Amino acid sequence: MTSAQRILVLNSGSSSVKYQLLDMRDSSRLAVGLVERIGEQTSRLVHSPLTDGGEKREHTGPIADHEAALKAVAEELARDGLGLDSPELAAIGHRVVHGGLKFSAPTVITDEVMAEIERLVPVAPLHNPANITGIRTAQALRPDLPQVAVFDTAFHTTMPESAARYAIDVETADAHRIRRYGFHGTSHAFVSRETAKLLGKDPSEVNVIVLHLGNGASATAVRGGACVDTSMGLTPLEGLVMGTRSGDIDPAVTFHLERVAGMSSDEIDVLLNKKSGLVGLCGDNDMREIRRRIDEGDQRALLAFEIYIHRLKKYIGAYYAVLGRVDAVVFTAGVGENAAPVRAAAVEGLEELGLVVDADLNAVRSDAARLISPGYARVAVAVVPTDEELEIARQTYALVNA
C-alpha cells in the first residue's frame, strides 16, 4: 500500500503517446497531453496542465523515439511541479491492447508479464509492440515505481466458451490462439458500471448492452457486471461497421479476392481494416459529414448510414436474445455520445422490445450521463460518456493499494 495519490496513465501507440496525470483522491486530472508523429521531423507535443494558472503548451520538431517522447513529457510535467520524480506519484498505468487469456485483471509488470505480452504480438502486431516500447521506456525513467498493465481484453475474459470459441478445428484454434478476445474492454467496464449507477442499482443487478461507437466500434452484452459476449473477435476487425473497418464479412471474401482479384493477404488486410467501413462505402468516416451529405440528398452517404444502422440493430437484437432481460441499452464514445440521429435510428422499430427514444431528450447535448428514453419505457436508453483513462487509473490505483 502507498500513501501517494497520483497515477500517470500512458497509452503508447506506434508513433504516438497519449498521457494523463490524475489525482485519485477526487479523480481529477492534473495534466493531459499527446506526443504524435514520433520519429518524424514534424513531431508534435501538446501539453495541457489543468492546475490553476496552467496554460496549454505546444512544441513541434523532431522527437526521435518513444524514449525521447517520454522524456519530453516528463520535462513538461516537471515545469508544472508535477514531475515523474514526485513522491506523490504512486504508479504508472499502461494501456495494453492484448492480454490474451492469461490476464483477466490489471497486473503489475514483471519480466514474466513482459514476456507474455511479447508472446501475444502475433495476435496484436499493430498494438502490443508499441505498448511494450512505452512500458520499457517508463521503466527506465522510474525503475523504482510500480508499472501496471491494464488490458483492453481483460473485461471480456468472462465470456463463456460458447461465445468465445469459433467453430473451427479445436486443435488448430488452440495451437494458434484463435478465439474471440474482444477489445475496448476498459470502456465497456467503465460504461456498464456508470450505467448501473445512473439506474440507481448495483452492477450485479443489471443487464446492459453497451455500444461503443467511435471510429472503432464494438458492442458488448454485460450480465450482472460481467461480459458474456462482445462483437470484436481475434482482432478489432470483427463486428459492427466502423469508420474504416468492414466488421462482419463472409471469410470466403478473402479467398475470392486472392483468386479473382489477385490481391495479396497484405493488400486484403489493408482493404478490410483501412479502406472499408464507412469510408469504403461513401468516402467519409466522419458521421457529422455523412449526416450533412444525407441532408443534401447524397444517396451514397444515405446507404452507408443505413448499412451502419442495420448492423447495429442486428447486434442489439442478438445481445437482447443472449441476455434474455435487458435493463438498458447505452451509447458511448465519439459517435455514440454525440450523434443523436444514430441513437434514434438504432432503436427505431424496436418498440416491441421495450426500446424507445424521447426525441427532445435525445437532442440534448451534454457531457453528463443521462437517460434519453421516456419514463414509461420498459428498457432504459442512455448516453454515458466513456473515460478509459480514468478506468485505467482506478484499476492501477486499486492494485497498488491492495
Automatic annotation (TrEMBL):
Please name the InterPro entries in this protein's record. Answer: Ac/propionate_kinase (IPR004372), Aliphatic_acid_kin_short-chain (IPR000890), Aliphatic_acid_kinase_CS (IPR023865), ATPase_NBD (IPR043129)
Pathway connected to this protein? Metabolic intermediate biosynthesis; acetyl-CoA biosynthesis; acetyl-CoA from acetate: step 1/2
Which residues are involved in binding ATP?
18, 212-216, 286-288, 334-338
The EC code for this enzyme is 2.7.2.1
Question: What does this gene product do?
Answer: Catalyzes the formation of acetyl phosphate from acetate and ATP. Can also catalyze the reverse reaction.
Protein family per UniProt: Belongs to the acetokinase family.
Note the subunit structure.
Homodimer.
User: rRNA processing: is it a keyword of this entry?
Assistant: no
What organism is the protein native to? Streptomyces chryseus
Active site located where? 152 (proton donor/acceptor)
The positions annotated for binding substrate are: 95
The molecular function GO annotations come to: kinase activity
Q: Which residues bind Mg(2+)?
A: 11, 388
Instruction: Tell me its cofactors.
Output: Mg(2+); Mn(2+)
- Descriptive protein name: Acetate kinase
What would be one Pfam family of this protein? Acetate_kinase
Q: Which residues form the signal peptide?
A: none
SUPFAM superfamilies recorded: Actin-like ATPase domain
Reaction(s) catalysed (UniProt annotation) = acetate + ATP = acetyl phosphate + ADP
Residues of the site described as Transition state stabilizer: 184, 245
The organism's place on the tree of life at top rank: Bacteria
Q: How is the cofactor bound?
A: Mg(2+). Can also accept Mn(2+).
Instruction: List the keywords (alphabetical).
Output: ATP-binding, Cytoplasm, Kinase, Magnesium, Metal-binding, Nucleotide-binding, Transferase
Query: What are the subcellular locations of this protein?
Result: Cytoplasm
